[in-house]
């Protein structure tokens, strides 16, 4: 039961954010959007370091291994995994005029569908990170507590709230009904608990590779930050606002992890 609660927390954040489409008539102001995107980037960077990479290193060293090796291998594999998905799956970023991925120009793929694919890609590593952290809390000697996994889930949920709004409001602005835009925002986050649950199963079966899985999730999240969030929050004028948001997000996630973990 506790794993279902923890895995559902980030999804709840996305759903509540998507529900803002019923209360906000206009699009999010550009300055606020940059602040929120930067905030999400800061949370994900801090989570990658404090909640995933450091525990992976500590766990390996406690087992008598070379601390940095699984962290390095897993991190690069996570980057590569998201790179492959980003290259293969057709998707369209909200601010991009051109779709990406294989067969992205196929007429049967609507703009809305490709936008949804883009956000789903974004959410995959977040679900993985919460799942692997929770799995680590179940393994003795992993150096991860249940409170630490909860802190990670809360941090991801906090940054998912504005992301949910950033997803649903532009879709509504594209002419989609508010109800459909909300549903699309919710569906974009459903991959998080699913991905987290699958990761828990894998980590539970193969606990010796947990440090690799922790670093893998960190690499996947960092890919999203570098590929998508930072460029979008630094786009155009007022780029310092995105930087402020990233700093606040990093600080909040760091405090959550240290105070609760």
Written account of the structure:
With 261 residues, this protein is an all-alpha fold. The protein has one domain (2-260). Helix content is 77%, strand content 0%. It has 9 helices and no strands. Helix 2 runs parallel beside helix 9. The two termini are 20 Å apart. 52% of the residues are buried. The model has no long low-confidence stretch (mean pLDDT 83). It holds the Pfam family Zip. The chain crosses the membrane at residues 6-24, 36-57, 69-92, 182-206, 212-230, 242-260. Belongs to the ZIP transporter (TC 2.A.5) family. InterPro entries: ZIP. Its main location: membrane.
Write the layout of secondary structure elements.
Layout lengths: L1 H17 L11 H33 L5 H21 L22 H28 L7 H28 L4 H12 L1 H15 L4 H24 L5 H22 L1
Helix pairs in contact: 1-4, 1-5, 1-6, 1-7, 2-3, 2-5, 2-8, 2-9, 3-8, 4-5, 4-6, 4-7, 4-8, 5-6, 5-9
The gyration radius over C-alpha positions equals 18 Å
Low-confidence stretches: none
Main beta sheet, described?
none
Shape: globular
Structurally, the number of domains stands at: 1
- Average pLDDT works out at 83
């Amino acid at each position: 039961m506790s794993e279902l609660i923890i895995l559902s927390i980030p999804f709840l954040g996305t759903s509540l954010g998507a529900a803002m489409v019923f209360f906000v008539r206009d699009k999010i102001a550009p300055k606020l959007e940059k602040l929120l995107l930067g905030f999400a980037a800061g949370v994900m960077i801090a989570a990658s370091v404090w909640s995933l990479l450091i525990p992976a290193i500590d766990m390996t060293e406690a087992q008598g291994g070379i601390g940095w090796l699984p962290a390095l291998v897993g991190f690069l594999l996570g980057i590569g995994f998201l790179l492959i998905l980003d290259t293969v799956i057709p998707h369209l970023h909200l601010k991009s005029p051109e779709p990406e991925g294989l067969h992205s120009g196929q007429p049967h793929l609507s703009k809305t569908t490709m936008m949804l694919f883009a956000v789903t890609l974004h959410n995959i590593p977040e679900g993985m990170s919460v799942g692997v952290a929770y799995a680590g809390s179940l393994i003795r000697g992993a150096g991860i507590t249940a409170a630490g996994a909860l802190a990670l889930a809360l941090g991801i949920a906090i940054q998912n709230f504005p992301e949910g709004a950033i997803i649903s409001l532009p879709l509504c602005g594209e002419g989609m009904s508010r109800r459909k835009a909300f549903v699309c925002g919710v569906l974009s986050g459903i991959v998080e608990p699913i991905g987290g649950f699958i990761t828990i199963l894998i980590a539970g079966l193969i606990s010796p590779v947990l440090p690799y899985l922790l670093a893998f999730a960190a690499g996947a999240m960092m890919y999203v930050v570098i590929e998508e969030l930072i460029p979008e929050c630094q786009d155009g004028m007022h780029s310092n606002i995105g930087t402020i948001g990233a700093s606040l997000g990093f600080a909040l996630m760091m405090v959550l992890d240290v105070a609760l973990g």
